[in-house]
Design a protein that fits this description.
The structure is a single chain. The chain has one domain. Helices cover 36% and strands 21% of the residues. The protein has eight helices and ten strands.
């Protein structure tokens, strides 16, 4: 799914994202200069992606990260039923609008990104990537159990996301978006995460999945 030529621009874009701070809600930046500055950073990280307004800075950064995750992860051939890479959110996830407006139709190698909203029961069959909002915390363990050993890249942000069997966890550190990786969960689903993405992560764990969940 990725190659050396595709990985290098993705890695450069990820480094730019890692240096970007999500403005604190306590700080009011001049609206125009803030939008222009962030548009420059986002376009440098993900070429040709239009910045959708209105959307939170954090959502825009997450969208750019997800694009690079798709570039730097390899799925098994049987994970795809068409020439599309299906990026899903669960119903009512506020991130959906940002993903749909900025990533819909983008190319990852020979595949086209399609953004979908799905019910949790559809995820194992309909998605290649699934973003799980923190509001799903109560249902998270059972949801990840249904995805265990299924080639769906799971991305979330709750504290116990990796221990529940999630693969990539977002977190804010000093107003900067960072991510951690559970390599054991990815391996069990036959997903190959590139060494470049592992190096850019804040931490890599092989956390054992809690079988009691």
């Amino acid at each position: 799914m990725f190659s050396d030529t595709g990985a290098k621009p993705a890695r450069r874009g990820m480094r730019k994202l890692l240096s970007w701070s999500v403005p604190s809600p306590r700080i009011r930046l001049p609206a125009l200069s803030s939008v222009l500055l962030f548009a420059f950073v986002l376009h440098a990280a993900v070429p040709n992606i239009a910045v959708a307004q209105p959307a939170s800075d954090e959502d825009q950064v997450k969208a750019a990260f997800l694009f690079h995750f798709a570039q730097l992860v390899q799925w098994p051939p049987d994970a795809f039923s068409s020439g599309e890479l299906l990026l899903c959110t669960l119903e009512d996830d506020p991130l959906y609008d940002e993903l749909e407006s900025t990533l819909q139709g983008r190319q990852i190698g020979s595949r086209t990104i399609r953004v979908r909203q799905v019910h949790a029961s559809q995820a194992a069959h309909d998605c290649n990537m699934l973003v799980i909002d923190k509001t799903e915390n109560r249902h998270l363990p059972s949801l990840l159990v249904t995805l265990r050993n299924v080639p769906v890249l799971t991305v979330g942000e709750t504290d116990d996301f990796l221990n529940c069997g999630g693969m990539i966890r977002f977190r804010l550190v000093d107003n900067k978006l960072r991510f951690d990786i559970n390599l054991a969960a990815a391996d069990s689903s036959r997903l190959r995460i590139s060494s470049q993405l592992l190096l850019l992560s804040s931490s890599v764990t092989r956390a054992a999945i809690d079988k009691g969940r």
